[in-house]
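Example record

One chain of 489 residues, shown exactly as stored in the release files.
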Amino acid sequence: MDTAGGRGARSRRGTRSGAPRGRGKQKGAARSPSRGRIAGEGSSAVATLRAPRTDGAPARGGRSARRAHAARELPAGTAAGGAEALPAPRSKAPATRAPEAPRSVAAVPDGAVAAAAARRPPPASDALRLREVLSRLSLPREDVSEASKLVNKVVPHLVQAIRGKDSCFSSIEQQSAGSYYERVKISEPNEFDIMLVMPVTRIQLDESDDTGAYYYVSFKRSPKEKGWLKFLEEDGKLSAFKMLQALRDIIKQEVKNIKGVEVTVARKKAGSPAITLQIKNPPSEISVDIILTLEAQQSWPPSTRAGLKIEQWLGTKKRRDFRFRSIYLVAKQNKREKVLRGNTWRLSFSHIEKDMIKYHGNSRTCCESDGLKCCRKGCLKLLKFLLEQLKMKHPKELEKFCSYHVKTAFLHSCVMWPNDTDWHSGNLDHSFQQCLGFFVDCLQKSQLTHFFIPQYNLLSLEDKARHHFLSRKISQELNNGFPVFHENY
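Predicted structure tokens for this chain:
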């Protein structure tokens, strides 16, 4: 979900060394403040971020284990996200110099971007292996079609029933969210996120902590619909817990009336904003997260003013258009409350994230049929897959990390390298390493700023040891050609 990208020094990537060739110095070696190391790492855990290839012209936690077997069987040779197959690298392409981060990046979170310069250029085989991994992560169309048909049979039925069961829910609308609808889902189409959006008017937001993300919601005037009163606490705050429980009760009863599909409601997870449906789809099942969401057509809270720094990437007008959209609040308990009552709501920007990832180009024709193809979505898929595979190997140490961490790092990377030429499809290996370098830098500083809320750090300072653990594991993968990508194939 969220803001700004990584304050600090800009890194120089892919520049030729001024040192003469020979005497062990490799052609194309790059000069970097960190001499090829990831910032903050000691000599025992140094990652070598390789120099960019310039082939061609410019241009939720516990579910991971279910995915690996499906990815094994996916056909190779298809580009991720439905794009054309990436071209094979040319061995004698001239090295180019990637542009420095725009000036607006000065507002990005603490810490410099990890050095993206390298001691040696990556072998062509590394880039080819990344493309092979991407092709395996592409979802077969027949599987996607089958899964979406089942979801589209279940969810509209529930929405219609919910509207008739409670007058407060009579105006809810179904809205898709998450990686499947952003077209960056990996491995298999077995997880869907559906927001049930409820319009509310004349509400007051009061921050529940200093993150700027969690709020108490109350009505400025007594609501005309008296059914709302049963969801209010004594102090007038709208209880997320009570509303979520009422919605869950309706859904649990209604799934019994769905014909031709076996649907159950999963047990409630503490602190989760979702009601999870499990749809049988032999030999596996599909998971659908139903997320209760309030929609208020009013100005965004002050905590968001310095966020969404996309002027250099998507443009000033697009940022203004986004900020004119409604506020979304999901029923999410704030664990930092002194007394956990379950009446807090968290800002959600999933509807805007979906549009940014779908229409991701600095130019208006990026990845369109007549435009240049970029590797932004491919990089995001690889980031998600890397974290997913590492979590499978180290579930205890990495249990607090989720795909939203790498998604946020990716959005910051798009801001730091805003031009489509920075993400040309032929430069997949370089672009992926740039994203990883930024993410590792955030991990080492325990500072990953929410994309929309600059004061909100997604990496708790209490978990520094976990952050450094993941940083070391990513460093090892970088230095050894990402062996984790191939362990299950």
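Notes: Confidence is low (pLDDT under 50) at residues 1-122.
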